[in-house]
Each structure stands twice: as structure tokens, then as C-alpha cells.
Amino acid sequence: MMKVNDIIKNLEILGTRGDLNRFVSDIQYDSRKIEKDQAFIAIKGYQTDGHRFVSQAYENGARVFFSEEKIDLPEATVVYLKDNRKALPIISRTFFHQPDKKLKIIGITGTNGKTTTAYLTYSILQKAHWKPGLFTTVKYFDGKAWHNSERTTPESLDLFRIFYRMTQAGLKSMVMEVSSHALSLSRVEGVHFLAGVFTNLGRDHLDFHQTQENYFLAKRRLFEGMNESQRAVLNEDDPYSERIKHSSEAEIYTYSLKNPAASVSYVQHQVQKEGLQVKLKIPSGEITIKTKFLGTFNIYNIMAATATGVGLGIPDNFMVEGIESLMRVPGRCEHYPTPDGYSVYIDYAHTPDALQNILHAVWETRPQSLIVVFGAGGDRDRGKRPVMGKAAEDYGDKIILTNDNPRSEDPMAILNDILAGISDKSRVLVIPDRREAIHTGLKMARNKDSVVVAGKGHENYQEIKGIKYPFDDREVLKEFFERRQWIFPAEN
Fold first, then answer.
1. How far apart are CA 428 and CA 384, in angstroms?
2. In CATH, which superfamily holds the domain spanning 334-483?
3. What is the pLDDT of residue 314?
4. Residues with Cβ < 8 Å from 472, sequence gap 6 or more?
5. Domain ranges, ordered by start, for the chain
6. Distance, CA of 417 to CA of 423 (rounded, Å)
7. SS3 letters across 170-184
8. Staple partner for 80: which of 15, 162, 276, 386, CB 3.0–4.6 Å?
9. Three-state SS string across 347-375, please?
């Protein structure tokens, strides 16, 4: 419980109405979740305006409101603000007693590799006894239980609530993905990051940011305002890292496959049957890591996590143990060998770079034939679709185009956009039904072949015309195993 007066002490107030000594038990921006003695903050979003639901919040028991518009309801306490969205992180941080100050927070941003790098870093901190929490696109751990994530980075109110739960559970650190949307929409405003990690910048989210430059500027916000007590961990092989260096006063740590002078640099690697053996040079010498992961892109993810460990002063043995102990990241290059001698890989790749990365990684294992099953999301950047088609053609011997999340678009229009990037149409099957497409790819596979099912990874739904239908690529694969009376591999 906290008084309204105490909640608003760090805000620029346009005006107030009613009793500011009233106690608030919680804050909500969703009127449907309001209970008695809770406050409602009306957020203007892209699809709807929270001010439309003030009456519903009042009916559900709210008597305290944060608003940009006039509210005239009996016995209501109203705090008038210029921009509720920008005020939300300040309100949230105050209400939950600045929980981020009690956690060593590592934020990871970039187009590709955020989730895997976050899991690797979390595993390192576990071995180093830092008592970490984790928040990713896939799942989050608050110190007591694992939960499914609704988005890469939640609204600031939800984020600070999770921070608070983590501190109450005794956690001391936290690793989190930070999306460009979150940075643009002030969701992490005011959060003190001990370290920020930049993985890379490819083509994505141009439907939201409009230009690649705007997309980069959103990512860079994580590092702007950092001081010498904070760390910036940067991929030196990505040209955008140089611009981040010049915009931040943080202590810089770099990682690179190309520059031996980086804080963490690549020495060599070997592709093995079940993963990679990677040798890296770090300030204390060389380390060798054996991992279940495949591909050059995962070497980058491993280096990013290692460079973060170096920047945080983690002992070498904990970094090696942390990386080697991580067997699988949900929906990221998940490998399922079959009794018939071919392999299946499920991956979230939904950008041209990510699709090329996973296909190159599997191609490096030298399959007899590489079968690619994928699609592209609707209501998103159309320009990346033919580029993804080209990436599939560069590596795939057989290509099956299918639905991803068509959302409000015509599925065939999306598939035709992808098809436009493929020169040799004879290698392509178009099967809109995703379950049928996956089963077709599996039936085509023979001994020593590989099948890559890309685009959805960890997602357990398919969005069509505004409705999310249950759908999970892994469950479809499991169905196929069961029909063959094969044992489906247990999750690690």
C-alpha cells in the first residue's frame, strides 16, 4: 500500500483532484484487471486509448486515476499528467520501491541472438552464484517459477513488478532482452543497467520504425547516458558498434571473429556431430568451450556472453561451465535427431539474417539434402520476404513455403512475396497449411538429410485474422514421432 502523494513525488504534475492521501494497493493499465483500491493509468496506445476505459475501471473499483484528459467521477482522485506512457516507468519504479537498484541488471539488445545470449549469460551468472533472474522473448524466471512471456520486453509497470518479485525471492541479478519497441516506448526508462550488450543490427521491425536508421537509434538508447561505472559489450564486427562507442561513456568490452585485439576474440572452432568446440582468447589467456549449439551465429552469441562475463569480472571457469551446461534454448536451433537417420531443426528465424544463419549452420554439418520449411509474418515488413526466399534458395535443396502468422493479410500474397525472391521455382512446394507442410518435409527426408522448420520457434499459436489458434511446431514434430512410434526426445 502506498499513498498517492508518495507515488507522484517524482512526477511533473499538471494538476490534481481529490484526496492525495488515499492509499493504493496496486496500479493497472488494463481496466479489466482493476480491483478495489487499485489505481488506473490510462495509456494511449497504437490500437486503442486507455482513456476510453476509465468508466470500466471505475466500475471495477478504481478510485485513483492517472490521466491526460479530464475525469469527473464521484469520489475519484485524479492526477493529471502530460504523457502517461512516459510517466509510467517513474510511477512504477516509485511504487515498487526502486527494485532495480537491488539487482545487477544486464540488458541485451540487437536484431538476432538476444534470446540465446541471454540464456548463456544467465547460465554463466548461475555458475558464478550471482542468483540471477531471466526475462526473454520465450520465458522468464522470477526466482520462484518459470512463466511464459507475452512479449520480448513488457510494459514498464509489469517489468518493475517482476523486478520487485525477484528481489522478494532473494535474487541479486537479472538478465533481460531489451527490444527496440521497448526502448522507443520508454518501457525501460529509468532502469539502471550494470551492462548493456549489443549483438548486431539486421533488417527487422521496419513496419514500426519506418527506416533502418530509426531502428538503430532505438537500439542505441540502451547505451546513451551510461557512465564509466557501467559496461557496454559490443559486437566489433558489426559496423553499428562504432557509433554506439561514440555515444556512450560506459566502459567498453568488445568481441570479434575478425579482430584479435578485441576483449574476446575468436581463435578457432571445430564442427562436431553434436555441436561445436570453440577456442576463444580472453584477457587471461585462451579458453576452450564445448557446446551443443551450431553455427557461426552461435559463436557470436557465445562470445557476447563471454565478453559480458569478462566485463563483470566472472572467473574463467564459471564462464566455461555456464556455457557448456546450457543444452538447449527454446525455439532456437533445437535439434531433434530421428531413428531414420535424418535430423530436424526448429528455429525462430524470421528475418533474412536469422534464416541465413540457421541454414548455414545446418549446411556446415554437411547433410545429404537440406529441406527448408518456412513462411513470413503478415502485417510486417514486406521487403524482407523475397530476401528470405533468396536465403532459402542459397542453402535449401528443397523448399516448402507455408504460413507463419499471416495475421490480417492474405496468406497466398505473403507466400508469393517470398516466392518472388526464388529463381529456381522447381525446388519449391507451396503448402499454406503449416501442419501439412511440416509433415510433408519430414516425409521427404531420408538418411543423412536435414529438415529446418523456421519462423515460429517457441511460439505456441498461429495468428490468423485477429485470432490466435493453438499451434506449436514442436508439437507437430512430436505428433510425427508418435505416428512412427518413435520416442520423442525429452527437453533438457
1. 18
2. Mur ligase, C-terminal domain (3.90.190.20)
3. 98
4. 459, 460
5. 2-83, 99-325, 334-483
6. 13
7. CCCEEEEECCHHHHH
8. 15
9. ECCCCHHHHHHHHHHHHCCCCCCEEEEEC
Which cell is 210 given?
A: 519506418
341: which 3 cell numbers? 537417420
| 3-state secondary structure (DSSP) of residue 254 | strand
Q: What is the dihedral of CA 30, 35, 38, 39, to 10 degrees?
A: 30
Q: Is the pLDDT of residue 374 over 60?
A: yes
Give every CB contact of residue 209 below 8 A, 6+ residues apart in sequence. 180, 184, 215, 218
CATH 3.40.50.720 fits 2-83, yes or no: no
Q: Which residue matches cell numbers 484526496?
A: 19
pLDDT at 468: 94
Q: In sequence order, what E strands does 84-171 have?
A: 104-109, 132-135, 139-141, 146-148
Distances (CA, A) of 130 to 121, 168, 193: 11, 15, 15
Of residues 251, 265, 189, the one with CA closest to residue 221: 189
Contact (CB, 8 A) for 199 and 301: yes
Q: Average pLDDT of 356-372?
A: 94
Amino acid at 128: A
- The residues, ordered by sequence, that sit 6+ positions from 451 with a Cβ below 8 Å of its Cβ are 342, 343, 344, 345, 371, 372, 373, 441, 442, 444, 445
Identify how many contiguous H helices and E strands the chain contains and give both numbers. 16, 26
- What is the identity of the amino acid at 316? D
pLDDT of residue 330: 87
pLDDT tens sequence across 426-474? 999 999 999 999 999 999 999 999 999 999 998 999 999 999 999 999 9
Residues 349 and 80: their CA atoms lie apart, in Å, by 43
**What's the Cα-to-Cα distance from 26 to each of 2, 39, 43, 97, rounded to whole Å?**
9, 6, 16, 13
**Residue given cell 540502451 in the structure block:** 222
> How confident is the model over 196-255, as pLDDT tens digits?
999 999 766 556 656 888 889 989 999 998 999 999 999 999 999 999 999 999 999 999
User: 237: exposed, middle or buried (C-beta count within 10 Å: 0-12, 13-18, 19+)?
Assistant: middle
What is the rounded average pLDDT of the residues 107-117? 93
Question: CA–CA separation, 265 vs 279, rounded Å?
Answer: 9
Thinking of the domain 99-325, which architecture would CATH place it in?
3-Layer(aba) Sandwich (3.40)
